[in-house]
Design goal:
By secondary structure, this protein is mostly helical. The chain is built from 10 helices and 3 strands; from the N terminus they run ββααβαααααααα. A 3-stranded mixed β-sheet has the order 2-1-3. Helix 3 crosses helix 6.
Amino acid sequence: SGKQLGDVLAVLLDQNYETLIIPSTVWRQIPLFEEQFNSLQSTWVDVQEGPFVVGMGGLFETSIQEIIKFLDYHSTQPLPVLEKPLRGKLEDLLDEWDRNWVYGTLIKNGDEKQHELLIDCMMTANRLRVPSVVEICGAAVASMIKGKTPIQIRELFNIENDFTPEEEEKIREENRWCEEA
């Protein structure tokens, strides 16, 4: 007997047919792919085998691969439980695998300035509707900005300050209550 439809998912990443193959144990954890598969099954009843193919142009292959690693690991291990709001250090709430994934891979070698993959994974997971990845990446970003001044945050994320000094002062005045709380 051949493979059943849905045993694997082929994700087309670009118009050159660059493809990423994902086993069903992982892709079924991605709501967007699960919905597309169910829709395909209900309309193409005569399709019995072969890969399930989804076009996802514009996604970064590296970030999808990292999300797949995360979902594959967490198909057998519990997801991290993150308190909201995050009161302590994120790394204290993660097991060794998750800590290495976030602070070794997504934030390259723990260097906060090398966070491009973290942001890419968060955006890709958001597009794919994978809340567990969005949550852990968001918590990592929150940990990175916690205790930093607006200037330090702008430097960390290369955000240009487009406010005039007068506009900044007005915003400070309007939000003084935040500092007092």
